[in-house]
Amino acid sequence: MISKVFSAALSGLEAKIIEIEVDVSFGLKHFEIVGLPDKAVEESKERVGSALESSGFKSPHHQPLRVLVSLAPADLKKEGSLYDLPIALAFLLAKREIKFDPENKIFFGELALDGRLRPVKGVLALTLAAKEKKFPEVILPKENEKEAALVDGIKVIGVKNLKEAIDYLEGKKKIEPAKFEIEKVLKDQEFKIDLAWIKGQEMAKRALEISAAGAHHIFFLGPPGAGKTLLAKSIPSILPPLTIEEALEVTKIYSIAGLLEKERPLITQRPFRNPHHTASEAALIGGGNPPKPGEITLAHRGVLFLDEFPEFHRDVLESLRQPLEEGKITISRARHSVTFPAKFILVGAANPTPYGDLEEIKFFPSPSQMAAYQRKLSGPLMDRIDLFINVPKLKFEKLISPDEENSSRKIREKVIIAREIQKERFKKEKILTNSEMEIPQIKKYCQIESNSQNLLRKYVDSGKLTARGYHKVLKVARTIADLEGSEKIKFDHVSEALMYRLRED
Question: Each residue of 371-380: pLDDT tens digit?
Answer without folding.
Answer: 777 777 777 8
